[in-house]
Design goal:
The chain has two domains: about 130 residues, no CATH class; about 35 residues, no CATH class. The strands form six sheets. The chain has a three-stranded antiparallel beta sheet with strand order 1-7-6. The protein has a two-stranded parallel sheet with strand order 2-5. It is α+β, with helices and mostly antiparallel strands. It is built from five helices and 13 strands. Helix 1 packs across helix 2 and helix 2 runs antiparallel to helix 5. Strand 6 and strand 7 form a beta hairpin.
Length: about 180
């Protein structure tokens, strides 16, 4: 993963590893920790992708059976193309006893933390003009001036971290202790 726009990292502290290892040795703990990291990152990924993205065509309901949409649950993202959801990847670095999960898309961070965009001009990427509909009328222009926007925070990864923290801790402790 290159310099991530948004990244969660899970790692095993080397001093803790030495304390836990005792007579069994650091290698046994390291193997257990790597196994635990794989399980933890898989758990985080499953939870994040299942809970934080609302598919445009799929109905998603809360615990009381109410339909969730971007309007009724502004902390979730409505998925259009799926590019943001697909951009989240995981990586395990065994020699560092670390795991990473995140997105390199430049707009992942603004969706997570919120923010504003400055006014800017929009030009066609392909072709010579932009075409769109306004009040049922077809409009064709060479460029448009975007006024900027305020994007609310939708802390999907933070929600995932909070929801899975206890499970991650149990998985890591169990994986390490299993090797001792």
């Amino acid at each position: 993963m290159a310099q991530a726009a948004l990244r969660l990292s899970v790692s095993v502290d080397d001093s803790s590893t030495r304390e836990i290892a005792g007579a069994k040795g650091k290698k046994a703990v390291g193997v257990g920790a790597v196994s635990g990291l794989h399980k933890c990152i898989a758990l985080v990924e499953r939870h994040h992708k299942r809970r934080e993205f609302i598919r445009g065509s799929k109905e998603l309901r809360d615990a009381e059976g109410r339909l969730l949409t971007a309007a009724t649950d502004p902390h979730r993202l409505t998925m259009r193309s799926g590019a943001l959801s697909r951009s989240y990847t995981r990586r395990i670095v065994e020699r560092e006893l670390a795991a990473y999960y995140g997105s390199d898309l430049e707009y992942a961070r603004i969706h997570e933390y919120g923010g504003t965009t400055r006014p800017h001009d929009i030009f066609p990427r392909h072709g010579k003009a932009l075409a769109f509909m306004v009040n049922g009328q077809s409009v064709v222009v060479k460029s448009v001036r975007h006024p900027g926007s305020k994007i609310p925070a939708r802390p999907g990864l933070l929600n995932t971290i909070n929801a899975t923290a206890n499970d991650v801790e149990k998985i890591m402790a169990g994986a390490v202790m299993e090797r001792l």
